[in-house]
Amino acid sequence: MILQLLFPPKCVLCGKLLKREMLDLCHACRASAPHFCGRRKKRRYIRDWTALWYYEDMVRESLLRYKFSGRRSYALAYGRMLAMRIQQDLTESFDVLTWAPVSRRRKHKRGYDQAELLTRAVARELDKPVVRLLRKTRNNPAQSSMEDEAQRRANVLGVYQAVSPFPAVGKRVLLLDDIITTGSTAEECARVLLTAGAEAVFCAAIAVRRAGKEQSKTVGEDYAIVFK
């Protein structure tokens, strides 16, 4: 009760104070958020995937605050909502959850790995184990700085390695990330997991770029929005 008085819950999208009967989103944002339609194009190495929203407008600004402005608490709200979407869309079962990790340098600078926080929040809702299965071997340029799909694929090629010994041989893995833009990162992570011995890889994200939209803004432009 004291914590609620000191830190009253706010809408994870617009930041307005939530009324007693609301959870995670205000009524206005729940109705107007750009919900992902569920039409999922085939992605290489990934059995099936889903997302909560499209990466635009209030969703984009919320995710930028989560990644760059220290809003770690957003992970709990995202996790609750994404877990419900996973149960709705991914009808096949999976054994463990893991995430697409950031580099050690980026994690040290930011203070946390946003995909790991999301994964642990989703796992609590689904009552599934979380296992670190991937590590990032170099601090490559941010995907948001790449202009086209070919650049993004080249940028992540060979960046991820499976942990050794690999604890998910023969298991079905749910891979979590915050944003799917072209899908290059998720596909590369899935390829590495399958090569290491996973039976199948599924994927879920908070947001996905809407088909036909322009590429997401550059990192510099994203920072300008966060700190305006």
Q: What global shape is seen?
A: globular
CATH architecture of the largest domain: 3-Layer(aba) Sandwich
Number of strands: 6
Strand order of the largest sheet: 1-6-5-2
Pattern of helices and strands: HHEHHEHHEHEEHEH
Total number of helical segments? 9
Stretches where pLDDT is under 50 for at least 5 consecutive residues are 215-228
Calculate Rg over CA atoms. Answer: 17 Å
List key phrases describing it.
228 residues, alpha/beta, Rossmann fold, 2 domains, 4-stranded parallel beta sheet, two-stranded antiparallel ribbon, 39% helix, globular, disordered C terminus
Secondary structure elements and their pairing?
Elements: H1 2-6, H2 27-32, E1 48-54, H3 57-68, H4 74-89, E2 96-99, H5 104-110, H6 114-126, E3 134-136, H7 149-156, E4 160-162, E5 172-180, H8 184-196, E6 200-208, H9 219-226
Parallel strand pairs: 1-6, 2-5, 5-6
Antiparallel strand pairs: 3-4
Write a concise synopsis of the structure shown:
The protein is of the alpha/beta class and 228 residues long. Helices cover 39% and strands 15% of the residues.
Structure description:
- The chain has 228 residues and is of the alpha/beta class.
- The protein folds into 2 domains: 1-32, no CATH class; 35-226, Rossmann fold (3-Layer(aba) Sandwich), CATH 3.40.50.
- Helix content is 39%, strand content 15%.
- The chain has helices at 2-6, 27-32, 57-68, 74-89, 104-110, 114-126, 149-156, 184-196, 219-226; strands at residues 48-54, 96-99, 134-136, 160-162, 172-180, 200-208.
- The strands form 2 sheets. It has a 4-stranded parallel sheet with strand order 1-6-5-2. Strands 3-4 form a two-stranded antiparallel sheet.
- α3 packs across α9 and α4 (74-89) packs across α6 (114-126).
- The radius of gyration is 17 Å and the shape is globular.
